[in-house]
Design brief:
The chain is an alpha/beta fold and 485 residues long. It contains 14 helices and 18 strands. The strands form four sheets. Strands 9-11-13-12-15-16-17-18 form an eight-stranded mixed β-sheet, sandwiched between helices. Strands 2-8-7-4-5 form a five-stranded mixed β-sheet. Strands 1-3-6 form a three-stranded antiparallel β-sheet, with no helix packed on it. The relative contact order is 0.11.
């Protein structure tokens, strides 16, 4: 059954999916949310190699549509199965039987952040759901450990474990002096009978004197006055809470580089103690920040493409995620995080705001003002991209902040505009899949924006549904951005 929605029902969908996001922690389902995200990324990684082929696109449509519908119905476990089913469509015939038998296997550590003096990592390998197929045992679990701070071309080390049955728990022990401070990307494969299945990667972090440093940072933050409000203190609160949760072994919605966040927080604390109000974002990398004002959420994830130079201001790309997502979605999924790669290569500071349920989102102008406190930005080169609910948010931001954005890309959603003057002469990329339930909203936007004088590049992609439209269109969007430079 297909999910059929018109533009009027998208408001209800937005509320429903916001409830998904807010309700999950209370339902003790954060691990399910995390795993669904990882399976989506695994699918997108495989899909990246073949999404330009129309036949490949067509094969995955039914499963992806069912996955999206299950998500909107709050059935995350069913959504996970349908995402796996879509990935199965991409597996080669030679690997198919092996993959079908093991596609439901999930690998998870009991904790993801450790003191580097002596490390014992407890892992669990189990089925998320039953499948009809079976595979000859034993199967080998191969783990490739890569330092995430480098280019990842050379693994730090390799480990292998023989799996005799499922579920299985095992422990890895690293003696003192063998693990350096770092955030490690652990890539996993199941291998047997000359066949293999790649599993979603995991982030494992190691820090010297983890608990003492975290406690010291927490105590130092308490000594910094809460008033007047500052983005620096709010961002420290956000990051230190995240670190405390990771230290307790709590599952998060995505993978966080805990060691990098700890080092960064220690640097910011020195700034705060020296009464330096601006957050130091001078180094290339990714950051989680809190620019919130009273009643307006300003939690964002950003990426600085290179070390900043005050004489060369950055162009800015603001990305608004779809319903049920978060500030991490454009960085980690929507094509296994390809937007972040394309933005970095194009020299953009990438900013992805969180869209919460119980408060409004920080207006675009105020978001840029906060960013400009820490980075030199080019106010004449601010571009926007939004998917589904995020497309609607983008339209609202343009109309409430006229003249702030240079151009925008509307994907898989939207509505007819209500303030024509805000769109006059603006370059707009408007795209949907031909079987995308958000296509009607895109077309309504495209027609009304064109009538208002916007320069609209409208594209309908063949054999594409609602989830895949971002991944399929990204290369075209960045080519389009380059043409309007």
């Amino acid at each position: 059954m297909l999910l059929r929605l018109n533009s009027k029902s998208l408001a209800g969908l937005t509320l429903l999916c916001a409830l998904v996001t807010s309700a999950l922690p209370f339902l003790a389902a954060q691990e399910v949310r995390y795993q669904l995200g990882k399976q989506v990324i695994a699918f997108e990684s495989d899909f990246e190699r073949g999404y330009q082929d129309l036949t490949t696109r067509k094969k995955v449509i039914p499963s992806l549509q069912s996955a999206v519908q299950s998500f909107f119905q709050l059935s995350l476990s069913d959504a996970e199965k349908f995402v796996d089913a879509a990935r199965i469509e991409l597996i080669s015939p030679e690997e198919l039987d092996f993959a079908k038998a093991l596609i439901s296997m999930r690998l998870a550590p009991k904790s993801r952040w450790f003191d580097s003096s002596k490390v014992e990592i407890d892992w669990e390998l189990k089925k998320s759901y039953d499948v009809d197929d079976s595979v000859a045992m034993p199967v080998q679990l191969q783990l490739t450990w890569r330092d995430s701070s480098g280019d990842g071309s050379k693994p730090s080390f390799l480990t292998e474990h023989s799996i005799e049955s499922f579920p299985m728990e095992f422990r890895q022990t690293f003696q003192a002096g063998k693990v350096a401070e770092q955030d490690v990307r652990v890539e996993a494969k199941l291998v047997g009978n000359q066949k293999e299945l790649t599993m979603p990667w995991q982030m494992i972090s190691f820090s010297d004197d983890r608990d003492q440093r975290l406690l010291a940072a927490t105590e130092q933050l308490k000594a910094i006055p809460k008033e007047p409000r500052s983005n620096l203190r709010q961002s420290l609160e956000l990051n230190l809470k995240l670190l405390r949760d990771l230290a307790r072994g709590r599952v998060q919605e995505t993978d966080y580089p805990a060691h990098a966040i700890l080092v960064q927080s220690e640097r910011w604390l020195k700034q705060a103690q020296a009464n330096e109000p601006a957050i130091d974002l001078s180094r290339a990398g990714q950051y989680w920040l809190d620019f919130s004002k009273v009643g307006k959420s300003g939690v964002v994830r950003i990426q600085v493409p290179k070390d900043s130079d005050a004489s060369k201001p950055f162009k800015v790309l603001v990305a608004y995620h779809g319903a049920g997502g978060s500030e991490n979605m454009f960085f980690d999924s929507y094509g296994a995080g390809r937007l972040a790669t394309l933005a970095r290569e194009a020299g953009y500071v990438l900013v992805a705001p969180r869209q919460p349920l119980l408060s409004g989102i920080l207006p675009l102008q105020e978001l840029l003002d906060s960013l400009a406190e820490s980075l030199p930005i080019d106010r004449k080169r601010v571009d926007l991209i939004g998917h589904s609910m995020g497309a609607g948010q983008l339209i609202q931001q343009v109309e409430q902040n006229p003249g702030v954005a240079r151009s925008c890309a509307i994907l898989g959603g939207g509505r007819a505009i209500s303030k024509p003057a805000a769109w006059a002469k603006m370059p707009v990329f408007a795209a949907a899949g031909d079987v995308d339930f958000g296509k009607r909203g895109v077309l309504a936007f495209s027609e009304s924006a064109s009538q208002a004088g916007a320069v609209v590049d409208e594209r309908i992609y063949e054999n594409v549904e609602h989830l895949a439209i971002v991944q399929v269109s990204l290369t075209d969007i960045f080519d389009w951005f380059q043409k309007i430079e």
